[in-house]
Amino acid sequence: MTLAAEGLFWSAGGAAILTDVSLDVRPGEFLGIIGPNGSGKTSLMALLSGIRRPLAGTVRLDGQPLSAHGRQAVARRIAFVEQQAETTERITARQAVELGRTPHLGALTPWSRADDAIVERALEAVDMAHFSGRLWHTLSGGERQRLHIARALAQQAPILLLDEPTNHLDIGHQIGLLQLVREQELTVVAALHDLNHAAMFCDRIAVMQGGRIVALGTPARVLEPERLHDVFGVTVEVERDSAGGCFIRYRRPDPRPAKLKLVAEAR
Ligand SMILES: Nc1ncnc2c1ncn2[C@@H]1O[C@H](COP(=O)(O)OP(=O)(O)OP(=O)(O)O)[C@@H](O)[C@H]1O
């Protein structure tokens, strides 16, 4: 199962949001997308998932344009966890996860015990089985986020697109979730803000800046102090280990000039 973007362009409100974005996602890899706020990560994920169409360029799934696949066929192959996916429906945690089975159901394939088992496994995988009867609106942000992931796992699609999947999660669940996703051996594209998580879990990282991909490669190649300063405006040291891994240590910025202090000294 392959996913590729060629020369994507997308604009909104009269401004270019994505320009000439090309990307080959290798089967089975965990590809991270990093970049500052507004650099286009969510927009790119929306085009890769097919929920938005590019104004130029093509997203290909198994060599065919996404638009040539039916919606259900795409949903069987690509599961997408959006950044701010919410529901106002009065549903339980379990029902939210059951929605992941929708692409597999039809007149000739009604809900079965196999679907129940898949949903239960997905709930257990994200540590939410004990909350399966709870109503959605009573759940915390982190609990909802784990259910979104469970819904995507229950979809059993070979490609998983995750837009900031660790949002709202405590550090234990952040690392647990990325490890869980990694262990599924799916093809994963995940927009991530935590550069050390990207370094720990990604096979490759694409760096976005101003709607373009400005670097793409292994974490050790991409996460370089000069690039991180240029893209994020932060000063870092990158520690590298003998196994090819890397760790980013942030440096505290120099103090701002007094005239830039937001609250004048009254005392
Ligand atoms: N429908 C829209 N209309 C106008 N501008 C939009 C629209 N969607 C996105 N944008 C703009 O496009 C730019 C990229 O947005 P996008 O959400 O893709 O960035 P991002 O990298 O995911 O940011 P963040 O890290 O803050 O989630 C932003 O400046 C955003 O304001």
From TrEMBL:
Return the protein name.
ABC transporter ATP-binding protein
Molecular functions (GO terms): ATP binding
Q: Which residues form the ABC transporter domain?
A: 3-235
Recorded hits in InterPro entries, A to Z, give: AAA+_ATPase (IPR003593), ABC_transporter-like_ATP-bd (IPR003439), P-loop_NTPase (IPR027417)
Entry's PROSITE patterns? ABC_TRANSPORTER_2 (PS50893)
Query: In the UniProt record, does the keyword Methyltransferase occur?
Result: no
Q: Which organism is it from?
A: Shinella pollutisoli
User: Which top-level group of life is the source organism from?
Assistant: Bacteria
Keyword Chaperone assigned: no
Return the SUPFAM superfamilies for the record. P-loop containing nucleoside triphosphate hydrolases
Function comment: Part of the ABC transporter complex HmuTUV involved in hemin import. Responsible for energy coupling to the transport system.
Q: Which UniProt keywords apply?
A: ATP-binding, Nucleotide-binding, Translocase, Transport
User: Which Pfam family, any one of them, does this sequence belong to?
Assistant: ABC_tran
